[in-house]
């Protein structure tokens, strides 16, 4: 039997009084997959996590957490295999990191030695016996991740896990996540920090005002939006590059001592072949659309559609 998806929403509507937090949302996070849930403040990201945790019920549609309704009996059992890192994680400041984890280990029925192993895994072994009150923001986030990792979760829900982390700590955090994901865990992560995120996740789901406005790999999303691929050219003969740009409907501009070509994804290989065969070109750098560009374009389109609506 194939493993059920880590998380699945089918046509979910969720209201809080008159506020429609989610309006027909469908998404899936498979085992061993990392999906970024993106969107503006109030787009509905945390509500998705609350639904998957069984903390709120949908008004319509279906929610499945590790294959079960999170508010049903089987769902409560499945909850033991769900790790959650809330946006603002709080601990008892008077306890040490190790004491916090040992306490939570007892609540979860996890052996203490697993808690100690996880402290090492998240890079807190040295600080484990210091009071949490003296931890830096990054250390608190690591402890938050440690508690989410206890009990060998099959689904990890991480709400803004990299807030306050410096670039090195962020990279370490995502490396750790890679290891967990490669072990078959499904990971759903929200983030407002889009820079470099495309390298760290498989797919992205973009919410806007409670609706999915884009879903897919960064490459699929970039293609669907018609975003160009940027080619930086070192060296190169201006006249020849202009002819090449015209032939492929590309945009050519100077960039530093070289040039920048913006080409449609379909024309990329033809342009690259031509450039590679041009002896005046010293080097090439190819940049696919970033998640930041994709997100900006999706927001622009949604603004236009909403502006055009009666
Ligand atoms: N318990 C609640 N009572 C009333 N309204 C709520 C409640 N929880 C969420 N909402 C509303 O639902 C909408 C979606 O909120 P949600 O917290 O899911 O957004 P978000 O995308 O996580 O935002 P952020 O990026 O700011 O964390 C917002 O309009 C919010 O005000």
UniProtKB/TrEMBL annotation:
GO terms for molecular function: ATP binding; ATP hydrolysis activity. PROSITE patterns: ABC_TRANSPORTER_1 (PS00211), ABC_TRANSPORTER_2 (PS50893). It comes from the Bacteria. Coiled coil: none annotated. Keywords: ATP-binding, Nucleotide-binding, Transport. Residues 7-234 form the ABC transporter domain. The keyword Cell membrane does not apply. SMART domains: AAA. InterPro entries: AAA+_ATPase, ABC_transporter-like_ATP-bd, ABC_transporter-like_CS, P-loop_NTPase. It holds the Pfam family ABC_tran. The keyword Transferase does not apply. Belongs to the ABC transporter superfamily. PANTHER family: ABC TRANSPORTER, ATP-BINDING PROTEIN. This is Cu-processing system ATP-binding protein.
């Amino acid at each position: 039997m194939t493993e059920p998806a880590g998380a699945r929403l089918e046509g979910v509507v969720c209201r809080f009084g008159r506020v429609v937090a989610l309006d027909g949302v469908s998404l899936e996070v498979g085992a061993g997959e990392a999906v970024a849930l993106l969107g503006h403040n109030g787009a509905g990201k945390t509500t998705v996590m609350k639904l998957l945790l069984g903390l709120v019920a949908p008004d319509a549609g279906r929610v499945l957490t590790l294959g079960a309704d999170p508010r049903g009996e089987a769902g409560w059992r499945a909850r033991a295999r769900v790790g959650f890192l809330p946006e603002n994680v709080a601990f008892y400041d008077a306890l040490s990191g190790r004491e916090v984890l040992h306490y939570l280990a007892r609540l979860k029925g996890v052996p203490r030695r697993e808690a100690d192993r996880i402290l090492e895994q998240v890079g807190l072994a040295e600080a484990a016996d210091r009071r949490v009150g003296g931890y830096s923001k990054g250390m608190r986030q690591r402890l938050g991740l440690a508690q989410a990792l206890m009990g060998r979760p099959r689904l990890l829900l991480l709400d803004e896990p990299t807030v306050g982390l410096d670039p090195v700590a962020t990279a370490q955090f995502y490396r750790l996540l890679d290891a967990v994901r490669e072990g078959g865990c499904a990971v759903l992560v929200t983030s407002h920090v889009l820079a470099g995120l495309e390298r760290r996740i498989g797919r992205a789901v973009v919410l806007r005002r409670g609706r999915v406005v884009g879903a897919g790999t960064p490459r699929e999303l970039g293609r669907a939006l018609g975003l160009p691929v940027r080619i930086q050219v070192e060296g190169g003969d201006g006249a020849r590059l202009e002819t090449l740009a015209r032939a492929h409907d590309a945009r050519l501009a100077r960039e530093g001592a070289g040039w920048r070509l913006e080409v449609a994804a379909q024309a990329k290989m033809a342009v690259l072949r031509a450039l590679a065969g041009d002896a005046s070109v010293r080097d090439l750098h190819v940049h696919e659309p970033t998640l930041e560009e994709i997100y900006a374009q999706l927001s622009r389109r949604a603004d236009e559609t909403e502006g055009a609506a009666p």
